[in-house]
Amino acid sequence: MPLAPIAVAVLAFLAAGARCQGLLANTALVAVGTLVVALPAGGLLGLLIHKLRLPGQAAAAVAVLTLLFLPLHLCAAAWRAGFGTLGWYTQQAADGGVANPLLEGFAGVIWIHAAAAIAWVAVIVGAALRSVDRQLEEDALLAMPAWRVLLTVSLRAAAPAFVVAAGWIAITVAHEMTVTDLFQVRTFAEEVYTQHALELFDPTQLDDPDQRLQQRQLFAGLAVVRGLAVAVLWSARGLIDRVSDGMARDAWRWDPAPRAPAVLAMLLMVVVLAGVPIGNLLYKAGGNAVREGDAWRQEWSLSKAVTRVGRAPVEHRRQLWQSAKLGLGVACGATLAGALVAWRLARGGVEQLAWLAAIALALTTPGPLIGIGAIDLFNRPLDSPLWPLSWLYDHTLAVVWAVQMVRATPVVAILLWPVWQGLPAGLVESARLEGGGPLAGVLAAARSRWGAVGAAWLAALAVSFGELSASLLVIPPGPQTVTIELFNLLHAGVDDRVAAISLVMIALLAVASWLVARLWSRAPE
């Protein structure tokens, strides 16, 4: 890892002050707890899906991609439906007494983050395992059994991917506030959101260090997160090079005998990560409270669950339409912008560092700060020469589109970076000789790798559907997006309405994940 951005992060932490250091320490605690759970579990799942030959791997890969795209607050809804304060398991375990939920406080935040992070580790480590030189592994097979090749050759070659995955998860934890807000855990991003809600960023407020982060502390906290993000992204260049080289060749896979233990392990992990939360939501969607004398008894009805889920798209049709309109615009804009950024990243050199720093800035800025910046830019008084921006802010989705572009464009750029880097040299050179600039090169690359571009477009669409922390502050009056509607409902607990619309969103994301897997498999064609 480069030392300069890490040194910047350390110095910024020392200068942040006691209050900000405490918030950053809480963020680090959540990140470390998440990594303790996610790294071994995600590494095992990535190994089972991408390095062995097992039945059901395609379905398991789609389940992992669905978890990858699942918004954190939706993941929280699914787990809280069973093990939160009003969850079915919590209520049954209480048996009329005091409910002690399994998911609350730091434990709840860490588990929700870990459930999502396992998918990230599986995908990143899986990509590294698929890019290991097949000749190296086959040569090792002449001297040792296949299981030892996996442990001593394949996993050893993919070890840097665990570092990259750990850094990526830390970045994700640092800028997310949806789960910490639901579980009332104070982290740096959560404090930024809370202070905006309390209008403590208003310059007319007294500068009381006991009530708010001072400007110096805020900038120091941001410098800590961004310095670490630049270090992670810079260190990921080697992994990107390997992945781009490995996309054009078949990976070696072990066909274990017997297969049953490996298949059972893969199935068990998918059931725990995807089956249990979906089961929680189904139970909530079909739950009924039946009175027996002076007491109430919970029962489950399949017909109610089916009816509830079937009615959810109709009940939330305005929110779904709002999300669809916004998502289509973000997906198209982010795919074009991200493809251009990925083209620049693939060129390497000093320019690559500048683009990586820009991506780190977009990924690590807490969503509330992005929203606050957009409000300051667009919310202009009538006597200002820029007053038309205020009309866009109040009457259109332009500002929401802009803040979601900040989130979706880096994802597209990172996805297409190895694809562009692995393009044939002749295609890249011909695009440069034609003199059409980067846009001409990107269009030529897109025609050659249309499957990867389609997968990136769907990924941007999923990011738009799930973005909350910035959109929540800038959404204009009128219909909310389905994500914001769900987040607002979650504060009152997970009832049958929340469970039903959550299941609909999971189904939509599962279809998108299946399409991404199909399209990405065509990327090297």
Query: How many angstroms separate the termini?
Result: 33 Å
Strand order, sheet with most strands: 1-2
Helical residue percent band: over 70%
Largest sheet: 2 strands, antiparallel
Proportion in β-strands: under 5%
Radius of gyration: 24 Å
Would you report the number of β strands? 2
Structural class: mainly alpha
Mean pLDDT: 82
Low-confidence runs = 203-207
Shape: globular
**How many individual helices?**
26
Helix-strand pattern: HHHHHHHHHHHHHHEEHHHHHHHHHHHH
Structure description:
The protein has 525 residues and is mostly helical. The chain contains 26 helices and two strands. The longest helix has 33 residues, at 18-50. The model is unreliable at 203-207 (pLDDT under 50).
Topology:
Elements: H1 3-14, H2 18-50, H3 57-69, H4 72-83, H5 88-94, H6 105-130, H7 134-141, H8 146-157, H9 159-175, H10 178-183, H11 188-197, H12 215-235, H13 237-246, H14 260-285, E1 287-292, E2 295-300, H15 302-315, H16 317-347, H17 350-364, H18 367-378, H19 387-395, H20 398-421, H21 425-433, H22 437-448, H23 450-466, H24 471-474, H25 482-490, H26 496-520
Antiparallel strand pairs: 1-2
Helix pairs in contact: 1-12, 2-6, 2-9, 2-12, 2-14, 3-6, 3-14, 3-26, 4-6, 4-14, 4-26, 6-9, 7-8, 9-12, 11-18, 12-17, 13-20, 14-15, 14-26, 15-26, 16-17, 16-20, 16-22, 16-23, 18-20, 20-23, 21-22, 22-23, 23-26
